[in-house]
Task: inverse folding
C-alpha cells in the first residue's frame, strides 16, 4: 500500500491534503476489509453445528455463503458457513458461536 500511495503521489504533486487523505482512506478500507474477512472466517473452523434458537433442533450445514456487510470501514464481502433448520425453515449467516467478547483498550 505504501509503494502504491508513493506512486500515486508522484503523479499528483498538486493534490491537496484532503485528496491525499482520500487516497489513503480508500486503500486502507481495502486492507481492513480483507483483514476483517480473514478474522471472521477463522470462527468457521471451530463451529459445531449449532442448535436452532426457535426449536432447539440441530441445524444443518449448507455450505459457504457470501454476504455483503456494511461496516464503518466500508463494504466487506464475507464468505462464511451457512446453517439451516429444516423444521423452522430458517437459517443464519454467519454462525453465532457462544463467545464472550471482551473490550480491549489500546494504549
Result:
Amino acid at each position: 500500500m505504501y509503494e502504491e500511495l508513493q506512486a500515486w503521489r508522484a503523479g499528483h504533486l498538486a493534490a491537496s491534503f484532503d485528496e491525499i487523505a482520500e487516497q489513503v482512506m480508500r486503500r486502507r478500507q481495502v486492507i481492513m476489509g480483507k483483514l476483517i474477512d480473514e478474522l471472521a472466517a477463522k470462527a468457521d473452523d471451530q463451529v459445531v453445528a449449532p442448535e436452532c434458537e426457535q426449536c432447539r433442533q440441530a441445524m444443518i450445514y449448507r455450505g459457504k455463503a457470501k454476504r455483503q456487510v456494511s461496516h464503518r470501514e466500508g463494504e466487506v464481502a464475507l464468505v462464511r458457513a451457512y446453517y439451516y433448520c429444516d423444521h423452522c425453515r430458517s437459517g443464519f449467516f454467519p454462525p453465532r458461536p457462544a463467545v464472550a467478547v471482551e473490550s480491549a483498550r489500546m494504549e
The two ends are 25 Å apart (CA to CA). Strands lie at 60-71, 74-85, 90-92. The longest helix spans residues 17-42. The first strand starts at residue 60 and ends at 71.
